[in-house]
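Sequence, please.
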């Protein structure tokens, strides 16, 4: 699969460096040409000889060491690379690149390459969550660098949290996916609704739900990576917004419906992943409601059903995809929505299942087509689920063109 591809693997000084040996070995078995660059700290965890033996290529550690071949090493590797992957990506290398610092072979090669660069962070949970590290990650994402999400679990330091290097096979699958994925959505225009909506009760309170927007944003990122023109109509979220998509921020269901209707004619594929509040207050108090009584009654009225309203005006050639977050009778409820809202496909998930609820980075879904077909997906990262959804959409369009 990777024949003819040159991958530069940058190894930084972290306890997870030993896992990267398996990554390099797997890439070699897939016929990739692999060159390893190690920081001096990385060489304290795994010897360069180990990577040299596995990669079948000299390993570079010292920028000023006598070259094996007569070339400017960081320039030659940077130019021949089809991809540069940094694993484990420490807070140090992330900060260096974000700050434009190139003071060793690895950071210099990253600066010199025009190939895609993928960071695979691995560090102590507190370090990973540090605002400086997160700001550096956000800055690099905005510049077009790619990040694989670290796993959660028991850390080498004894704490539990997010920051573990993903399993080697997961990293390799991400690399394979990158090279196997064509720009198969070039020319398509994708409109996505994402996140929750908020319905005011008074100036300080509102009705909403637990949706984080992560699934919708993952679809936006995946579609853009495959060449699509993407717009997201987003409710209030607290996650990094994809720099590859146009974002229109809204708050209420009425605002989301208006934005969707205004944009509808300009898009081919409509993906409605937003968790829209079903009800809103019949009247909104203009001042904060004081807790003077033991009970409080608020009159609620139905919000517009955005998916159903768009389904009523659905035009020939457009694809409508919906979501069904359920706690029981998953398939039955999802199929009912599929029909009533004129969807071509619905993505159904049971939010009571571990790893499939709100706010997490993974999902477990069933993709149900209007022809009754059901594709069951196992626990996957949401970005992987996003690509599976897009694969099914393209298949549907191909079969119905």
């Amino acid at each position: 699969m990777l024949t003819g591809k040159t991958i530069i693997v940058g190894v930084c000084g972290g306890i997870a460096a030993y896992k990267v040996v398996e990554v390099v070995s797997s890439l070699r078995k897939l016929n990739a040409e692999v060159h390893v660059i190690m920081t001096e700290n990385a060489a304290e965890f795994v010897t360069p000889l180990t990577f040299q033996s596995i990669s079948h290529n000299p390993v570079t550690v010292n920028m000023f060491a006598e070259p094996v071949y007569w070339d400017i090493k960081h320039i030659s590797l940077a130019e021949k690379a089809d991809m540069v992957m940094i694993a484990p990506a420490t807070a140090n290398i992330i900060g260096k690149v974000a700050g434009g610092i190139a003071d060793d072979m690895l950071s210099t090669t990253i600066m010199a390459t025009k190939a895609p660069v993928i960071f695979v962070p691995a560090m102590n949970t507190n370090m990973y969550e540090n605002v400086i590290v997160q700001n550096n990650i956000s800055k690099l994402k905005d510049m077009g660098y790619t990040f694989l999400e670290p796993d959660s679990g028991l850390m080498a330091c004894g704490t539990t949290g997010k920051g573990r290097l993903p399993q080697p096979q997961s990293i390799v699958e991400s690399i394979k996916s990158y090279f196997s994925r064509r720009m198969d959505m070039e020319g398509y225009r994708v409109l996505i609704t994402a996140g929750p909506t908020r319905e005011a009760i008074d100036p300080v309170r509102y009705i909403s739900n637990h949706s984080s927007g992560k699934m919708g944003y993952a679809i936006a990122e995946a579609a853009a990576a495959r060449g699509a023109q993407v717009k997201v109509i987003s409710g209030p979220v607290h996650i990094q917004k994809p720099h590859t998509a146009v974002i229109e921020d809204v708050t209420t269901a009425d605002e989301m419906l208006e934005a969707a209707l205004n944009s509808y004619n300009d898009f081919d594929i409509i993906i409605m992943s937003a968790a829209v509040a079903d009800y809103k207050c019949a009247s909104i108090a203009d001042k904060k409601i004081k807790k003077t009584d033991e009970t409080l009654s608020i009159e609620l009225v139905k919000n517009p059903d955005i998916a159903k309203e768009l389904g009523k005006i659905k035009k020939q050639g457009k694809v409508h995809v919906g979501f069904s977050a359920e706690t029981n009778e998953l398939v039955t409820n999802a199929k009912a929505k599929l029909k009533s809202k004129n969807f071509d496909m619905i993505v159904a998930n049971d939010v009571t299942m571990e790893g499939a609820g709100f706010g997490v980075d993974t999902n477990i879904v069933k993709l149900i087509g209007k022809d009754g077909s059901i594709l069951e997906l196992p626990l996957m990262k949401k970005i992987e689920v996003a690509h599976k959804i897009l694969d099914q959409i393209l298949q549907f369009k191909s079969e119905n063109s």
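The chain is about 35% helix and 25% strand.
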